[in-house]
C-alpha cells in the first residue's frame, strides 16, 4: 500500500499547481486498489513531470523513460537525483584521449582488448550505466530503453515501477524498432551488395529470402569482422548494425512462426522510402510485453494526447498483458483560459490528393491573409509535407521575406536559427509537431495547413484500411493535430491562435475522441474564406454604403474583422 503522506514528501516542489495534489492522491489510490497500468491524460501546462518523479522516488527501483535526449537533459537539470543513461555514441572514450565516442572506442576496435578505464570505473559510458543501474531512479530515452529490450544482458529489467512519458507514441516506437529494413544504411554496403546488388533481382519469396540468404550473408560478414584483430571505426559501426539486424531477424522469424502478420516488400521507389527490403509487423501489441510490460510490475503512462482510449489500449496490447480491472485512465483539464488558446476554423476545403490542386491555391491565399493579420508576430506553419512547404516558401511579396524553412537534414539548425531570430519571422515546418516549446513571443500564432493523415502508399496503412480500421486511421492523425496544438501557449499568461486551413483537419479537431480541453478551444465563430480582392471589395462596399452590416453573414463579419481588427471600434461601420 502506498503511504500518501510519504508520497507527498517525495514531491519535488514546495507547492502544487492546480489539480496536481488531487491527481497525486488519485493515482496512489488507484495503485492501492489493484491498478497496475495508469494512464495520465493531462493537458499542456498541468506539470506532469513532478508527479512522475514523485512516484519514481517513492517506489525506488524505477525507470523514467522519455522520448528524446533533449528532454532527458532538461529533466536532469530540474531533478538532479535522477541517474541519466544514453547510448554509447553520446559519451567519449577515455582510452582514445576523448577523441572518439564510446561506440567506436578502443574496446570496440581491438579484439580482446581489456579496457583499464572501464575496469577502474573511469569509462564515461559504463560509469553512467552502472550509476543508472544502482540508482533508485534511472532516466532513459525511448531508443535506449527499447534497444536494451533486445539485449540478453539488459540491466534495466525486473523493476518495480516504470514511467513512460509522452507515451501516446510508444506503440509506434516499438513498431519502428522491431521492423526489419534491409538497406545499405541498415546492413552496410557489403552485405547489401552481396544479397541484392544493383539490379535488385530476387528469385524467391521475400520472407524466405530474408530468413535464409540475408541472414546467412549477415553471419558471414559478422564472422569476418570479428576475426580481425583491429577494426576501423566504420567497420566497428558496421559490426554493431549487423549484430543488431541478426537479432531483429531472429525475433521476426519467431513472431512469424507464431502466426502474426508481417508486411514484406521490396521497395524500389526512393520517393516513398529507402531502397531495399522493408519488413513491418502489422501491430505493435504482440511486442509490447517483451519490450515494455515484462520489465516491471507497475506502470504510469503519461501524455497530453491520449486520443480515443479504447483504440490506444488496443494498440499497445493492454488487455493482453493486464486484466481490464487493472487499467485506468485519469483525465486532467487545461488550466489555461480558453480565450488565450483558440482554434480558428478558417478552412478553404480539403487538401486530399484529389483536391489539393484546387484548394492549395486557396489555402496559400488564406495563409497570406493570416500572415498580414499577424504582421508583427512570430509564428509557425505546420505543412505536413515538403510539397506544401515548398509551395509556402515560394510565396511572393512582403510575406516571403518573413518565411524561414528547412530541409530534412537541416531541421535542427534551421529551427534554432529561427528561434534566435528577431522580429516577425515565421517558421515553415514539416513533421515538427512534438517537443517544441514555443512559449510567449516565440510564436503568437500557428497555422495547420493540412490534416496529417498517414500516407496511403504505406503498406501497413493500406492493410489496416483493408481491414476497415478507420478509427485507428483517424486517431493517428488526431494525435498529430493534438500535439501540434500544444506547441504554442505554454503557460496561464501565454496566448496564441491556431488557424486551420484544411477542412479535414478542422473536422478532426471537433471529432469525438479528441481531448475535451482541445475541443473546447475550437471557436464557435464562423469564418468565410474570401480572396484578398473580395475582402477589400467588401470593406469598400461597407464604407460607401453599397452593403449593409445587417446583410452580412456571420462568416463575412468575422473574416472582415480578422483582417481589419480596427473595425471593432468603428461602430458606424461594423457592429460587433
What descriptors fit this protein?
16 strands, globular, 4 domains, Rossmann fold, alpha/beta, seven-stranded parallel beta sheet
* CATH topology name of the largest domain: Rossmann fold
Query: How many β-strand stretches?
Result: 16
How far is the N terminus from the C terminus? 58 Å
Which percent range fits the helix content?
A: 40-55%
Largest sheet: 7 strands, parallel
Strands side by side in the biggest sheet: 3-4-2-5-9-1-10
Radius of gyration: 27 Å
Tally of individual helices: 25
Number of domains: 4
CATH superfamily of the largest domain: P-loop containing nucleotide triphosphate hydrolases
CATH class of the largest domain: Alpha Beta
Secondary-structure class: alpha/beta
Oligomer: single chain
CATH architecture term of the largest domain: 3-Layer(aba) Sandwich
Shape: globular
Mean pLDDT: 90
User: Uncertain spans, ≥5 residues at pLDDT below 50?
Assistant: 569-576
Instruction: Estimate the strand proportion.
Output: 5-15%
